[in-house]
Amino acid sequence: MALRILVCVKRVPAPGARITLTADHSAIDVKNLGFTTSPHEECAVEEAIRLVEQHGGEATVLTLGPAEAEEQLRYAVSVGIVKAVHVSHPSLVDQADWDPQATATALAEVIASIEAADGAFDLILFGNESADSGGFQVGIRVARKLGRPIVNGIKAIEIGDTAVVAQRESTSGFEVYNLPLPAVLGVKEGLNLPRYPTLPGRLKSKKAEIVTHTVEPVAGGLITENFDNAAEVVVQTTMLGTGAESAPAIVDLIERLGLL
Amino acid sequence: MTEILALLEHDRGEAGETSYQSLGFGRELLAAGIGTSITAVVIGGEADPLTLDLGAYGASQVVSVHHAELSDYAPEAWGEALSELIASRSPAAVVAAGTDRGNEVLAHAAAITDLPFAANVSAIRSVADAHVELTRVRWGGSLLEQSKLVAPTYVMTGAAHVFDGDPSPDHVGVSADVEMVHATLPDTAARTRITDRVTLSSGITLTTAAVVVSGGRGVGSAEGFAPLQELADLLGGAVGCSRVVTNNGWRPHSDQVGQTGKRIAPELYIACGISGAIQHWVGMMASKHVLAINTDKEANMVGKAEYAVVGDLHTILPAVSEEIRKRRS
């Protein structure tokens, strides 16, 4: 069975980046930020490539974002995705997201138009949540609009003829879900270890054609107004010593906490 | 009278540590002026025993939702069940704890009813007729987003560990009426349910261990984790790690602590060679005590830890294990 897979990714600040705000706190200062693909979605890209290697078919990457998000599309192509789609609008700039309802409506619209022209996707992958805004809903809203089943938190995927078996981590192991195809999954980091691009991959990605769809945002009900840095944790650190000589002091601590 | 519907999360009838935080969040909404009473929502007949003591958490009513498809967790069916309650009761708000399941079920309910949804709310700043001003946590908790939620029903999850999960001191001995409701559910609700479970470990796990010995870039290699494992074994604890470690393939992702890994709350977290980026910190900030071992005394983790030792983990950890064996013999 030749699969048609779509991966939806988001351009986010590099993990670990220190976020600074504009003077009036109305926006995130993006001047000195590096950007990357949201970590859960990096694994979604890798999984799509592996599934196509295993079953045949074709994988497409799609993002809604500013012009700069082409970087993330090209990265996905450099590791093995074949087609790239950019959903764009002049109002989209780094770190000024559309409302989740507007984002999901636009994505569902574009996905439906791609499917009308080229055929349905068997599997659509989202990240469980974006690393930056963490709305926890765009994938679910898109799946509902397309009338497809979705489960979030997925860490293992196996595709059969008519269904996909997906595993989600629980406190004691894994929950197993069996979804009829076509289906949508929200995946989590740890699903796989993403590969790095090869030199030929990089060269190919530079020349890759990116299909652009322009969409208008619908009104949504969650409106971001301002930002604030969370209060820094101020802790008086007790130094127990330096080097191996500190071992007795460490064991004293463990004993004092009743953990020995 | 306008209700706040508070979803009680459970797994096959068992409530977890975070389950009752939805009711604590509900009490905060009442105090802020949203709604006039709390109705706890318990989905699935297996959880009927849990309905009995919800009055003590501030619920004045409990709705127990039954249906053949609701015997185990099923995200779409739970979302449908909740959306049926939204349609029939027009609540002021629908809330849940900001967990994997809480966020998932409320996103489904919001998508079905076409309502906006705010995940991981940490505070309600003001309430108006048709909107609330709220604060959401993002970027691993280091960034606060101030947003306006405009909706006839406010669908929100409460950020983890922000709202009280204990019984309410104002409701000691209070009992709530339980109303049983049969959900109708569309046929499609059955397509996303748990069909099987894989149990990996029944012993001590990273999420249940009292002591977690965790390693970062400073461990240097997969083999470098041997002294961490030794100490964890001696203390009946578990080994954890940071994201760079799993990215390097030194440990499996199931050991990863942080925003995209596990969130844990052990008695003692021993952070070895971990610099302490915010994405890691958010995974272990609920630890009761933190000991940092790092060669760099300027490392973030050293500054944020309650206890610290400066030096090489590869010489310190074996000395600690040796000292423990000595004291036990």
Structure notes:
- The complex is a heterodimer of chains A (260) and B (329).
- Chain A has one domain: 3-Layer(aba) Sandwich (Rossmann fold).
- Helices cover 28% and strands 31% of the residues of chain A.
- Chain A is built from 6 helices and 13 strands.
- Chain A has helices at 39-55, 70-78, 100-118, 138-146, 199-207, 247-256; strands at residues 3-9, 11-13, 35-37, 57-64, 83-88, 123-127, 150-159, 163-169, 173-180, 183-187, 210-214, 222-229, 238-242.
- In chain A, strand 8 (163-169) and strand 9 (173-180) form a beta hairpin.
- In chain A, helix 2 crosses helix 5 (199-207) and helix 3 crosses helix 4.
- The longest helix of chain A is centred in the middle third of the chain and has 19 residues, at 100-118.
- Chain A is globular.
- The mean pLDDT of chain A is 95.
- Chain B is α/β, with parallel strands linked by helices.
- Chain B folds into 2 domains: 3-191, HUPs (Rossmann fold); 211-328, TPP-binding domain (Rossmann fold), CATH 3.40.50.
- Chain B has helices at residues 21-32, 75-89, 100-113, 226-234, 243-247, 278-284, 300-304, 313-328, and strands at 3-7, 10-11, 14-15, 37-43, 61-66, 93-97, 117-127, 131-138, 143-150, 154-158, 177-182, 194-199, 211-215, 238-241, 268-272, 289-294, 307-310.
- In chain B, strand 2 (10-11) and strand 3 (14-15) form a beta hairpin.
- The model of chain B has no long low-confidence stretch (mean pLDDT 94).
- Chains A and B meet through helix 3, helix 4, strand 7, strand 9 and strand 12 of A and helix 3, strand 7, strand 8, strand 9 and strand 12 of B.
- Strand 13 (238-242) of chain A pairs parallel with strand 17 (307-310) of chain B.
